[in-house]
Design goal:
By secondary structure, the chain is mainly alpha-helical. Helices cover 72% and strands 4% of the residues. The protein has a domain at 86-291. It has helices at 2-18, 23-46, 55-80, 96-112, 114-117, 123-132, 137-164, 169-182, 187-207, 210-230, 238-241, 245-271, and strands spanning 274-278, 286-291. A two-stranded antiparallel ribbon has the order 1-2. The longest helix has 28 residues, at 137-164. It starts with a helix and ends with a strand.
């Protein structure tokens, strides 16, 4: 029996090394997204327009993101031979209280990082905010519905899920969050999206509910879009909206405290959840939260 165990270890290690995705896979997925985005931009330029609006905004977003998802799934099929274990759409772990506190947490984070984001010139945001902040049906469909479903499918359902089967959980969460932030390109969005990705990644890892993070993402984007609509499509921070220093800093401190409270609540709700054994190639099964507590 001893020789057999020694022979099994290299096989497990080899399976782990070959499992999807590796770093080349991740780089190629990013490259495909940007190439498709450039192609869409060139196509729009040929029409004589300098920005995407209305229906063009919708398909101009869906083509690069949808195409990247198709490529990522094709790569998984090519490299691993099947698509099992990816894009979990189970309703298990869907808890309204967890979603509520998750939204509060992300809003508190957005306020907490404002002083950092104010150091970055906002000219990159102006065009995007003017385009998306009109609040018409197509901008709502694109930013609230399409972005939430497609981005969570790619970054949590495919990339993070695949990384989890190869690396430690924290690596899968951080890497998927960083890539999620990077594809937003605009510096302010890169920082904000990366932090949001950490929250969404943690909740997805613990609950295994893609639907939960899709809803969280959708509510976050809806609130951001509402803020843009109310400001007339112009980029405006809370600091700009509340010029009186003591009032602003009172709200800021309250948001910081709310961040801590909401983070604790999210962790507590998740820890009360049920557990399920999840196996990874070459590793022992690991207990993860399968369904968040109902109470």
């Amino acid at each position: 029996m001893q020789p057999k165990e020694k022979n099994e270890q290299p096989k497990e290690k080899e399976a782990l090394q070959k499992s999807y995705p590796n770093w080349k896979d991740l780089l190629s997925i990013i490259a495909v997204y940007f190439l498709l985005s450039i192609a869409v931009g060139l196509a729009v330029g040929l029409t004589g327009k300098n920005r995407l609006e209305g229906f063009a905004l919708f398909w101009g977003y869906c083509i690069p993101m949808g195409g990247t998802i198709i490529y990522a799934l094709f790569l998984q099929k090519l490299r691993a031979g099947d698509l099992r274990g990816l894009v979990k759409l189970s309703i298990h772990g869907l808890n309204p209280r967890l979603i509520l506190w998750g939204v509060v947490l992300m809003l508190a984070i957005s306020v907490a990082i404002e002083p950092l984001l104010e150091l970055v010139p906002d000219q990159w945001l102006e065009g995007l905010n003017t385009m998306v902040g009109k609040g018409d049906g197509w901008s709502i469909l694109t930013t609230v519905i399409a972005a939430s479903i497609l981005e969570e499918t790619l970054f949590r359902g495919i990339i993070q899920e695949g990384l989890f089967r190869k690396y430690e959980p924290w690596i899968s969460i951080v890497v998927s969050a960083v890539i999620f932030g990077a594809i937003h390109v605009i510096p302010q969005q890169v920082v904000a999206a990366s932090l949001m990705g950490l929250v969404l990644g943690y909740i997805y890892y613990k609950t295994r509910s893609l639907l939960s993070v899709v809803i969280l993402h959708a509510v976050n984007n809806a609130l951001a879009l509402l803020g843009l609509m109310l400001s007339g499509g112009e980029p405006a921070t809370l600091h700009e909206e509340i010029p009186i220093p003591w009032i602003y800093w009172t709200i800021y401190v309250a948001a910081a405290l709310l961040l801590i409270i909401s983070l604790v609540k999210v962790v507590m709700l998740i820890r009360r959840g049920k557990f399920q054994e999840i196996a990874r190639p070459g590793r022992k099964p690991e207990k993860i939260d399968h369904e968040a507590a109902e109470n």
